[in-house]
């Protein structure tokens, strides 16, 4: 089949919450869509010289000769929808989200378009709010001086499955407006994702100036607690620890950090611990200019360490001119322990837990157990103690996995009882409840964790997992997308969960695309490699694209990990037996011809 390359303006659009609307009354929604296409959408596309490349059920991909034509068409459609939705109940409205990009595309002989230009437009549509239009920087550059537009700069945004962040602009259309965070629809065919607002910040790991590498845990702990405190404020977009800590020990400019993480502000600092004293310095920098907004040095006894953390977070909030409610101020107050030794054990234990190995997990549990013995009311210590038992259960690291999950539930329940306002406590209880197959409890605890910490990337992943294993794949995908925005350097396991969700929706192409990324990032993953088998055999196009590589990935899977996965799989359906799971995941032989 012949093909040609060209530069084109691509518009991608779909209906927000289509699955929910169709589930309520499929015939009515299809009739309304047909009417909208004939009365509004198709005539508007024709007037602005567009060509419908393909329809996707509830959406469309359209090519235009210029970005100006594409934007004018999009605005006219969105304004038309505002009029048509006037007086219609919110839960019955048809609302579109639209993405527009100017980029290189490949045109097939049948007129179909492929390539990055199409992919980016589709991803821009995915981050648009209901009734809004999102433009890439390349597209916006073509229209900013030619059209009178009300625009919000959403900054550099990591779009799904696009390697490099792209600067995104959102147009305010009709009464829809532009949201700093993308719509959090929970039942859409293409999940929306969160986008960072102007008040966005990354807290880099504080440098350890003590001259003793073993004191790294203390500097890291101070940084992580500041991240946790700031994350509780809805007015801020706070990058997750996992992403911030990728810059640990690296000599990077704050402008580079801001660009890579998509944030406006960066906090950096240092910690010098000596005996019972600690000196903490911190400075808040505008990543767009490199200018300092605030800097301070604190010399305190270790017994006052929580007061220092409180001072740092309060002064950051003041420097950013964030308006706090009384509830916000209460959330900022450190909810840790007044026992210095218990806090030290907690910091050491939490740092070891993050390493996710059998030995460090065991060492972490010993330290966290000592922390709760020193202070039985230390909720976060109970929470991470629960997570160490949870890792033992999932990885079959303990002699009695069933005892491990029981201990995890006891510690997590105690954590919430000690402090119901601690998001980490609810997160831990959500994780443990899911793998105890208490799905409703897992969902409610994850939602509670996110309500207490709106920037909680791990909480979004946990909610996504609970939804995934409850059979609510579309909602799960929205959670995973939000987690990836909050945590641009997200753990590769998120790719596996996303792929699983797409697989459950029988969207094999999307599933395989993510599995390829996961296996590329983590070649030793047996679980993700095995996920290739169903789409390889069920879908000829996937099988052809993967070829021998996909079959080799499947063929090299050992049996043991699947026995482990079968036993710990927390699906709402009855657990899969080891024999049936192995047969499903790893067939006896492959024809590699």
The tally of strands reads 14
Query: What's the story with the biggest beta sheet?
Result: 8 strands, mixed
Give the rounded overall mean pLDDT: 81
**Gyration radius over CA:** 25 Å
Main structural class: alpha/beta
Shape by Cα distribution: globular
**What oligomeric state do the depicted chains represent?**
single chain
- C-alpha end-to-end distance: 24 Å
Poorly predicted runs = 175-197, 535-540, 574-593
Helix content: 40-55%
Strand residue content? 15-25%
Number of helices: 25
Provide a quick synopsis of the model.
By secondary structure, the protein is an alpha/beta fold. It contains 25 helices and 14 strands.
Please explain how this structure is put together.
This protein has 593 residues and is an alpha/beta fold. It is 52% helix and 16% strand. The protein contains 25 helices and 14 strands. The chain has helices at 18-24, 26-47, 67-84, 116-127, 137-143, 216-231, 241-244, 254-261, 305-319, 326-332, 340-353, 358-374, 379-395, 401-418, 423-435, 439-452, 457-469, 473-486, 493-504, 508-521, 526-530, 533-538, 540-555, 560-568, 578-585; strands at residues 3-15, 51-55, 60-64, 96-108, 113-114, 133-136, 151-157, 166-171, 200-203, 207-208, 237-238, 265-274, 277-286, 292-301. Strands 1, 2, 3, 4, 5, 6, 7 and 8 form an eight-stranded mixed beta sheet that branches. Helix 2 packs antiparallel against helix 3 and helix 24 crosses helix 25 (578-585). The longest helix has 22 residues, at 26-47. The chain starts with a strand and ends in an 8-residue tail after the last helix. The model is unreliable at 175-197, 535-540 and 574-593 (pLDDT under 50).
């Amino acid at each position: 089949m012949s093909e040609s390359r060209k530069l084109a303006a691509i518009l991608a659009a779909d209906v927000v919450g289509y699955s929910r609307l169709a589930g309520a009354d499929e015939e009515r929604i299809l009739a309304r869509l047909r009417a909208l296409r004939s009365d509004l959408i198709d005539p508007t596309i024709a007037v602005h010289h567009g060509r419908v490349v393909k329809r996707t059920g509830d959406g469309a991909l359209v090519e235009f000769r210029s970005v100006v034509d594409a934007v004018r068409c999009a605005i006219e459609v969105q304004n038309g929808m505002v009029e048509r939705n006037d007086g219609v109940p919110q839960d019955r409205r048809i609302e579109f989200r639209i993405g527009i990009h100017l980029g290189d595309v490949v045109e097939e002989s049948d007129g179909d378009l492929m390539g990055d230009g199409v992919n980016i437009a589709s991803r821009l549509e995915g981050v648009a709010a209901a009734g809004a239009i999102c433009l890439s920087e390349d597209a916006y550059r073509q229209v900013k001086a030619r059209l009178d537009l009300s625009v919000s700069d959403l900054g550099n945004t990591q779009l799904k499955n696009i390697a490099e962040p792209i600067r995104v602009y959102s147009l305010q259309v009709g009464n829809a407006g532009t949201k700093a965070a993308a719509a959090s629809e929970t039942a859409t065919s293409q999940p929306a994702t969160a986008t960072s607002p102007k008040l966005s910040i990354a807290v880099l790991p504080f440098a350890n100036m003590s001259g003793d590498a073993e004191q790294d845990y203390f500097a890291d702990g101070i940084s992580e607690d500041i991240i946790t405190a700031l994350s509780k404020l809805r007015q801020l977009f706070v990058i997750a620890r996992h992403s911030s800590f990728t810059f640990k020990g690296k000599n990077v400019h704050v402008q580079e950090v801001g660009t890579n993480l998509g944030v406006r502000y960066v906090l950096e600092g240092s910690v010098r611990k000596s005996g019972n004293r600690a000196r903490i310095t911190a400075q808040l920098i505008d990543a767009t200019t490199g200018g300092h907004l605030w800097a301070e040095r604190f010399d305190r006894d270790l017994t006052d360490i929580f007061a220092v953390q409180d001072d740092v977070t309060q002064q950051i909030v003041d420097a950013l001119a964030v308006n706090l409610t009384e509830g916000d101020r209460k959330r900022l107050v450190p909810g840790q322990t007044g026992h210095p030794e218990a806090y030290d054990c907690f910091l050491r234990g939490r740092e070891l837990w993050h390493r996710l190995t059998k030995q460090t997990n065991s060492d972490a549990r010993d330290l966290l157990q000592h922390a709760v013995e020193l202070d039985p009311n230390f909720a976060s210590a109970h929470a991470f103690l629960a997570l160490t038992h949870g890792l033992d259960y999932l990885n079959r690291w303990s002699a009695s996995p069933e005892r491990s999950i029981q201990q995890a539930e006891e510690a997590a329940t105690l954590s919430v009882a000690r402090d119901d306002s601690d998001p980490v406590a609810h997160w831990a209880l959500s994780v443990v409840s899911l793998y105890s197959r208490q799905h409703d409890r897992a969902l409610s605890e994850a939602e509670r964790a996110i309500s207490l910490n709106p920037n909680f990337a791990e909480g979004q992943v946990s909610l996504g997992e609970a939804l995934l294993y409850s059979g609510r794949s579309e909602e799960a995908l929205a959670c995973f997308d939000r987690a990836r925005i909050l945590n641009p350097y997200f753990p590769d396991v998120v790719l596996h969960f996303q792929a699983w969700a797409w697989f459950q929706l029988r969207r094999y192409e999307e599933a395989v695309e993510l599995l390829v990324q996961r296996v590329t990032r983590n070649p030793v993953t047996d679980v993700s490699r095995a996920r290739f088998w169903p789409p390889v055999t069920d879908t000829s196009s996937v099988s052809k694209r993967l070829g021998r590589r996909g079959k080799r990935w499947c063929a090299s899977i050992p049996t043991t990990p699947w026995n482990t996965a079968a036993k710990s799989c927390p699906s709402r359906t009855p657990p899969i037996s080891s024999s049936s799971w192995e047969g499903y995941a790893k067939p006896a032989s492959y024809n590699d011809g």
